[in-house]
Amino acid sequence: MLTGLQIAVIGGDARQLEIIRKLTELDAKLSLIGFEQLDHAFTGAAKEKIDEVDFSHIDHIILPVAGTSLEGKVETIFSNEKVYLNQEILDQTPSHCTIYSGISNDYLTEITDKANRKLVKLFERDDVAIYNSIPTVEGTIMMAIQHTDFTIHGSEITVLGLGRTGMSTARTFQALGAKVKVGARQSAHIARITEMGMTPFHMDDIEKAVANTDICINTIPHLVLTASVISKLPVHTLIIDLASKPGGTDFRYAEKRGVKALLAPGLPGIVAPKTAGQILANVLTQLIGEELQTRKEQQS
Ligand code: NAP
């Protein structure tokens, strides 16, 4: 139970509702900032404006997956209010206050560093990234079906990267009957791709490897689908770029060549916000519970 903890949930989308639900079930007291248009009421959670909150009593701050913008703005789907997080707010919090976000940027890292508060980036955790790969792959399958006139079964699918998302993507498309090739740069990854019964290739050989691709799914957050690589793809190829913005595709050249290329950010929040929220809620409650336990042990 998280009885006695005060947590500020600042902004976010439907995923945050699962987090709020779980935290209130565990008896934490919540200040919900940027939720005034949310019809649903949660017992133990009060909708407040950011300047009404007494941050000196806040044990944890939960930000949306994207954290803040480079100007400190926090995305608020359930509000028209403009909400900004700045160092002055963090300075008011107790020294043990932890800030949770999916990812960070220079602004968020700088204000948490300057305020000397701990920032936890949930998406850097292997468990979150692996769980999150499940709705990501389901969203990728949805896009592949929507944007092609052929079946996945029997198609030539090229997956770039054998990280947490790439591995789930390659395995699922193979299970659907596709002929899957995977590009990686580490010899251990090449060995794993072979062990999984797929065709491996080294990223140095990408131009040769993509020649028969029907669907190319990129998970590498660097420019790997260059103009030169795209020029080797058949024109009917569909590129689904999952890598974080700006993706790993030369979209300008793809358009010029007539190859359909789609940047597909945030698929878990789009196709399965409830599951994506539960993934975050489970990890968050575990982390907050552990921190509470550690503080209690230090105090006794
Ligand atoms: P990850 O586990 O770190 O995997 C990234 C892969 O890219 C690794 O296999 C890595 O290989 C490879 N890589 C990185 N730089 C490379 C380079 N210069 N050349 C060749 N390979 C390179 O990350 P992840 O969790 O799978 O996530 C992958 C991307 O998808 C991230 O950008 C993430 O934000 C994004 N994502 C998007 C969605 C969505 O909804 N669109 C959902 C989840 C994740 P090495 O091991 O050799 O470095």
From TrEMBL:
<feature type="domain" description="Alanine dehydrogenase/pyridine nucleotide transhydrogenase NAD(H)-binding">
    <location>
        <begin position="150"/>
        <end position="290"/>
    </location>
</feature>
<feature type="domain" description="Dipicolinate synthase subunit A N-terminal">
    <location>
        <begin position="6"/>
        <end position="123"/>
    </location>
</feature>
<dbReference type="Pfam" id="PF16924">
    <property type="entry name" value="DpaA_N"/>
</dbReference>
<protein>
    <submittedName>
        <fullName>Dipicolinic acid synthetase subunit A</fullName>
    </submittedName>
</protein>
<dbReference type="InterPro" id="IPR007698">
    <property type="entry name" value="AlaDH/PNT_NAD(H)-bd"/>
</dbReference>
<dbReference type="InterPro" id="IPR031629">
    <property type="entry name" value="DpaA_N"/>
</dbReference>
<dbReference type="Pfam" id="PF01262">
    <property type="entry name" value="AlaDh_PNT_C"/>
</dbReference>
<dbReference type="InterPro" id="IPR014215">
    <property type="entry name" value="Dipicolinic_acid_synth_A"/>
</dbReference>
<dbReference type="InterPro" id="IPR036291">
    <property type="entry name" value="NAD(P)-bd_dom_sf"/>
</dbReference>
